[in-house]
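Mods, move this if it's the wrong board.
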Amino acid sequence: MDVVNTSKFIKMNNKPSTLFDKVWDSHVVRKIEDGPDVFFIDRHFIHEVTSPVAFLGLESRGLKVIYPERTFATADHNTPTINQHLPVVDALSAKQLKALEENSKKYGISHWGLGNPKNGIVHVVGPENGITLPGMTIVCGDSHTSTHGAFGAIAFGIGTSEVEMVLSSQCIMQPKPLKMRINVNGKLGKGVTPKDVILYIIAKISASGATGYFVEYAGDVFEKMTMEGRMTVCNMSIEMGARGGMIAPDETTFNYIKGREKAPKGADWDKQLAYWKTLKTDAGATFDKEYTYDAADIEPMITFGTNPGMGIGISKLIPTAKEVSDGAATYEKSLNYMGFAENEKMIGKKVDYVFVGSCTNGRIEDFRAFASIIKGRKKAEHVTAWIVPGSHIVRKQIQDEGILDILTAAGFQLREPGCSACLAMNDDKIPAGKYAVSTSNRNFEGRQGPGARTLLASPLVAAAAAVTGYVTDPRDLI
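Not the wrong board. C-alpha cells:
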C-alpha cells in the first residue's frame, strides 16, 4: 500500500472539504482526545545529519525499522561539491556519511550516497525519481520537506526524536494545523519567476505570518506554473512560519510523474490517477485564513535583511523602521548586520559571491534561467560563483542541454551536487562581511557562514549579479 485511500472518508463526509483535509484525515490512525493525531506516513526521507542519533535510539531499544521500503536515504548536507571521488576531508562529515551508509545497509534502506548516480539533495531526488506522489504524507528531518507539497502531498519537516518514531512505527503524533489559502491571480510580468512569487508573499505576510497553518496555494499563477516552479514555492512555505504548503495536483503534475522510475505503472497508474483527480478543494470549503494577491504587482524580488520576510521588489528602496511590522531595534540590528540603511537602493550594491543551487533552486529549469542571462556575457572578475546542481541527474541535464558550454564560455565552473552554500555545513562558506546573492531559502545571520551577508533572489537576479558584479535588475538584461 503506497497511499492511504480516502474513499471511505469522502463517502462519510458530505461537507465540502479542502485538499488538506482530504489527505490529512485519510491518514489519521487514531485521534487522541484533546491531543495530537496518530498520523501514518507514506514516505520517509533521511540524510546524514538528523538520522544518526535516531538510529542509535532504535539500537538502544532493540527496535527495527518497521517499513524499510518506505524510507529513502541520500547524502546531501555534508557532501563536498568538488572532488566527490576522493575521501571526505572533514572528520565529522565523513563520520556522518559513513553512519548513514552503514545504518541503511543494516536496516535494509535504499541508500544513494556519494558516487551513486541518483545521489543529490533529498528534496530534488525524491520528485525526480517518482518517489513523491499526490495524496501522500511525507516527512524528513529537514524543514524544507514542504517542497513535496507541490504534488498535492502533505509534507513537513520533523525532529530527530520524530525520525526515530517514524522509523520504528511509520507513524508520528501531530496536532492538526489550521488551514490557510493564498491566491495569486493574473499574469506575471517580465523576469518574474516562482521564486519572486513566494518571496513577495513572504514579504507581504512576514516571516511568521503563517505560523500554525498549512497553506494551499491557488489561482491562475500556480495553475500555470511548471512542477519545478511549484516546488520552489512550496519549499519556502516554512519561511513564513507555515507547517507546510501544497498545490492541488493536475495534468501538469500527472505528466511530470508519468514514466519516472518509481512512479506507478500500468493498471496501478490508472487506479492511482483516478484517486489523484479527487485531490482538490471542494467548492464551498472554508479556510481559517485567506489572502489574495495580484500577479501584476510582483516584480523581481531581493531580500535586504536577516529573515526571508525582509524582501522588496528590486527597483524599490529599503523600507524605514516605521514602514515595517518588526520592532525598530530588531530592524536596526538587522540592517546593521547587513551594512545597509533605510531608504537605500538595492540596485548597484556590490556583490562578492553568487550561489545557484539548493533544494529551492537547484533544478534544471533554474539553470536554464541562469544560462539565459549569462549567455554571450562574462562573469564579473571580482565575483566568486558557486553553480551547484541539486542532483547528478540535473548535472547530466546541464551537460546534455549545452548549458555547461554556456557556463564555461562565460567563466563559470559547474560543481557537483549537494546542499553546498545553502547552510555552510560543508566547505562552501561565504566569508564574513561578504555579500552573496543566493538562490537558496534563508538569509539568517551566519546561515551561509559566520558573518556572511545573504541576499535571497531568483536565478535570473543571481545571473544578473554574476555578470555585472552588482545587484542588477534582470529585466535590463533580458
